[in-house]
Design goal:
Helix content of chain B: 55-70%
Largest sheet of chain A: none
Number of helices of chain A: 7
Shape of chain A: elongated
Radius of gyration of chain A: 22 Å
Bound molecules: protoporphyrin IX containing FE, copper (II) ion
Largest interface: A-B, 43 and 55 residues
Number of strands of chain B: 2
CATH topology of chain A: Four Helix Bundle (Hemerythrin (Met), subunit A)
Distance between the termini of chain B: 15 Å
Strand content of chain A: under 5%
Strand order of the largest sheet of chain B: 1-2
CATH topology of chain B: Cytochrome C Oxidase, Chain A
Distance between the termini of chain A: 73 Å
Strand content of chain B: under 5%
Number of strands of chain A: 0
Structural class of chain B: mainly alpha
Structural class of chain A: mainly alpha
Number of domains of chain B: 1
Helix content of chain A: over 70%
CATH architecture of chain A: Up-down Bundle
CATH class of chain B: Mainly Alpha
CATH architecture of chain B: Up-down Bundle
Number of domains of chain A: 1
Oligomer: heterodimer
Order of helices and strands of chain B: HHHHHHHHHHHHHHHHEEH
Largest sheet of chain B: 2 strands, antiparallel
CATH class of chain A: Mainly Alpha
CATH superfamily of chain B: Cytochrome c oxidase-like, subunit I domain
């Protein structure tokens, strides 16, 4: 005879989905799911890093010359912003565990502000100059040779293709992150039980956010700090 | 015995109730379902459709090749036809077929779970798949792609006209549907096993799905970004893979095969899983060396990522790389061989019943072995330099993909058909048809091995320079016609059985496994109560077997339940 292994679903608050036996199983599933998703993300970016390694290997002197167009100052500021945002995210998860609603909202809000700052710097201080200096890959690329710093135009174009692809993909992840954190902060603000009764949703968003930061930690030295 | 057996009274009561097929009849209840069983049916219908599209392209190819000067198609149309065949069959049929149809249906049942961990993600996977499929179809209708299923650059990125961008976008999108399925399976297997369902009580099909999911998760993102780069090149004119612009086309090959060699295991590992189930249940024996078979799946998943260079022996890859790739390719054949030996050993003194699924499984054993062994010819770089780009390659991979994966798929569909539909398929026709598949298949592809050895290049649509190839091509086309009929017949009698087939009991095969302990078809929530598993996997009661310590034949279950004795 089949016996009942666990309790009935209705003993739990509404947010245990029918396929799960209890809240622990549901939460553990979400956490395993998030980590698995992050593995796919690592492979996703990994393929681009592979391309980067190949061309850096082939064109190291050109990469060194042309990378001087990137501003380590703005890159450094942005790195700091993201590191701080990781910290505020950690605080958010911490307060979520303590169910301190207003502090969670504050921490998440700070994370959004820092992330938005990152995007503003990227889209106002960094990318537009590349358009002016004709460093965006395409037909006009390199038509102002003084900005190539003596690098071969073909290698420089590969460098900037990779730069825009990789930091662009990263920026898309930041934008998605801001949206998700925004929704999460909204739910906390309204005191929805789906987040307040259970810190796991907040933790999942945190995991994603740390991953996005981590990618930048690799991108920054690879593009801004190329040694001679 | 098992504590999971549902007593007949309860079963009866269950059958009176709504099952997953009758619970909600509107189209909406299907299109918005979260039920893994319904999603499996959606996938079954859609993969069957794409299989017919791909099959149509195959018939055009075989027709064209019956004459040394071609019959019907122009060169470019021919290129588009074989490209369509490969793209549709691989991305839209083989990769999703077993995981998304059979895996979706039986995996939660086998684990004793009510559903996959993320039902909505599962539904999203089907929609993503359909979106990708439709994009690929649109690409074909608007002009087609001539770059083959491998999309080699710079042909695909610079020279190919036509609608290749849409086609590649379609393949890119389909990739996400397998990622979603992979995530779902991994989480479900880790977290949703019923109490008592330990890792080593998992049916081997579950192990196979686990290994497949690992490959999907590690490989698919790489091919997605690779195809994404080709699309970006076509749209923006950057040159990551284009030599004129400083890029390296061989990088494309590396990134593509980094996924696509493992992808051949995405296609065959689920087949391995199905075959393990069928062989155990139709020999009524525990799979010989269960642990070896389980771990060999993981070994394949791991080693499979280290051999991609064997597709690039004649590219600019260095000789030393080739040597290493060649050696590792030999290694990757070992776990596959372990499986074949263990299945064969399972048959030994088994209580074999030759019903249709078992006939398919036996066909699989023979055909996959030939396919795998010819893979070794190609894995040794010296031989491959001569054989690459010939029909030998075509024959090799059809042996593993059609003789292996599709045969397993057909066997699995027959095996679980009673569970999926509550009806039995007509056994006699199915048995004869399984033999017809074997005959048609062999007649199609044995001549192709010979042709390859004689030097017939793949992807050519004429061979006026060597008219002596013609008899082999005609034999192959003849075989393909038989094979086409043998694929159509199950379509007909399976649909027929939905209405006229005998009603199936909960466990028509006397098989062992949790999926056979719910009603056929199961109700929406799979199990009334989550079962507690107390018996070992493939623990068949009442079967004659040689008792190891006594050295004489004895009836299993006479004294103590055998599963406990073994452990
Ligand atoms: C048993 C181990 C196997 C080995 C050692 C092996 C080896 C190889 C090698 C060396 C090639 C490259 C030939 C060339 O292009 O010159 C090849 C091609 C291929 N193999 Fe296998 N193979 C094995 C199993 C499989 C399996 C299980 C599948 C699929 C289910 C498969 C599918 C393919 C496909 C699709 C190609 C051709 C790809 C193309 O160029 O379009 N192989 N195999
Ligand atoms: Cu391969």
């Amino acid at each position: 005879m089949a016996s009942i292994a666990h309790h009935d679903a209705d003993e739990f608050p509404v947010h245990v989905h029918h396929q799960f036996e209890d809240i622990e199983q549901q939460n553990e599933s979400y956490i395993v799911g998030m980590w698995t998703f992050l593995v796919t993300e690592v492979m996703f970016f990994g393929a681009l890093f592979l391309a980067y390694i190949l061309y850096r290997w082939n064109y190291q002197p050109d990469f060194y010359r042309v990378h001087e167009n990137l501003s380590p100052l703005w890159g450094g500021i942005n790195t700091t912003l993201l590191l701080l945002s990781s910290f505020t995210m950690v605080m958010g998860v911490h307060f979520a565990q303590l169910r301190d609603r207003m502090k969670v909202v504050g921490s998440l809000g700070a994370t959004i502000v820092l992330a938005t700052g990152f995007l503003i710097i990227k889209f106002t201080q960094e990318w537009p100059i590349k358009f002016h200096e004709h460093l965006v890959p395409g037909p006009t690329f390199g038509t102002m040779p003084e900005h190539l710093h003596g690098a071969s135009p073909r290698a420089a174009e590969i460098f900037f293709s990779l730069y825009f692809l990789m930091t662009g993909l990263h920026a898309i992840h930041i934008i998605i992150g801001i949206l998700i954190i925004g929704v999460l902060a909204g739910l906390w603000h309204k005191g929805k039980t789906i987040v307040t009764e259970d810190y796991v949703p907040t933790e999942l968003v945190g995991l994603y956010w740390h991953f996005v930061d981590l990618v930048w930690i690799f991108l920054f030295p690879l593009f801004y700090l190329i040694p001679q | 015995m098992s504590a999971t057996v549902v007593n007949p009274g309860e079963l009866h009561e269950e059958q009176e109730q709504l099952n997953y097929l009758t619970n909600g009849k509107s189209l909406k209840s299907w299109l918005l379902t979260g039920d893994h069983k319904r999603i499996a049916i959606l996938y079954l219908i859609s993969t069957a459709f794409f299989f017919m599209v791909g099959g149509f392209a195959a018939s055009m190819i075989r027709l064209e090749l019956t004459s040394p000067a071609g019959v019907l198609l122009e060169s470019e149309t021919y290129n588009k036809t074989f490209s369509a065949h490969g793209i549709v069959m691989i991305f839209l049929f083989l990769i999703p077929s077993i995981p998304a149809v059979i895996g979706n249906f039986v995996l939660p049942l086998m684990l004793g779970a009510r559903d996959l961990a993320f039902p909505r993600l599962n539904l999203l996977s089907w929609y993503t798949y359909m979106l990708g499929g439709i994009l690929i179809m649109i690409g074909m209708i608007l002009g087609g792609t001539e770059a083959g299923w491998t999309f080699y650059t710079p042909l695909s990125s610079m020279y190919s006209h036509g609608t290749i961008t849409i086609t590649i976008l379609g393949a890119f999108v389909v990739g996400f549907s397998s990622i979603f399925t992979g995530i779902n399976f991994i989480v479900t297997i880790h977290k949703m096993r019923a109490p008592g369902m330990t890792w080593f009580r998992l049916p081997l099909f579950v192990w196979a799905m686990y290994a497949t999911s690992v490959i999907i998760l590690l490989g698919t993102p790489v091919v997605a970004i690779t195809l994404g780069l080709v699309m970006t090149e076509r749209i923006t004119g950057i040159g990551i893979f284009s030599p004129e612009l400083g890029g390296d086309p061989v990088l494309f090959q590396h990134m593509f095969w980094f996924y696509s060699h493992p992808a051949v295991y995405i296609m065959i590992l689920p087949g391995f899983g199905v075959i393990s189930e069928i062989i155990a249940n139709f020999s009524r024996k525990r799979i010989f060396g269960y642990h070896f078979v389980a771990f060999s799946s993981l070994a394949i998943a791991g080693l499979g990522f280290l051999v991609w260079g064997h597709h690039m022996f004649i590219s600019s890859q260095s000789m030393y790389q080739s040597v290493v790739f060649s050696l590792i390719s030999f290694l990757v054949a070992v776990p596959s061989a372990i499986k074949v030996f263990n299945w064969t050993a399972t048959l030994y003194k088994g209580n074999i019943r030759l019903q249709a699924p078992m006939i398919y499984a036996l066909c699989f054993l023979g055909l996959f072995t030939i396919g795998g062994l010819t893979g070794l010819f190609l894995a040794s770089a010296g031989t491959d330099v001569h054989l690459t780009g010939t029909y030998f390659i075509v024959a090799h991979f059809h042996y593993v993909m059609v003789g292996g994966a599709i045969t397993a798929f057909l066997g699995g569909v027959h095996y679980w058909w009673p569970k999926m539909t509550g009806r039995m398929y007509p056994e006699k026709i199915a048995q004869v048809n399984a033999l017809l598949v074997f005959i048609g298949f062999t007649l199609t592809f044995i001549p192709q091995f010979i042709l390859g050895f004689m030097g017939m290049p793949r992807r050519y649509h004429y061979y006026y320079f060597a008219p002596e190839f013609q008899p082999y091509h005609i034999a192959s086309s003849l075989g393909a016609s038989i094979l086409a009929i043998a694929f159509l017949i199950p379509g007909i009698y399976l649909v027929w059985s939905l209405f006229k087939g005998e009603k199936a009991s909960a466990n028509p095969w006397g098989a062992h496994g949790l999926e056979w302990e719910t009603a056929s078809p199961p109700d929406t929530h799979n199990f009334h109560h989550i079962p507690i598993v107390t018996d070992e996997v493939y623990d068949f009661p009442g079967v004659e077997y040689a008792h190891p310590s006594h050295g004489h034949k004895k009836k299993k279950g006479d004294l103590t339940p055998a599963g406990k004795e073994n452990h």
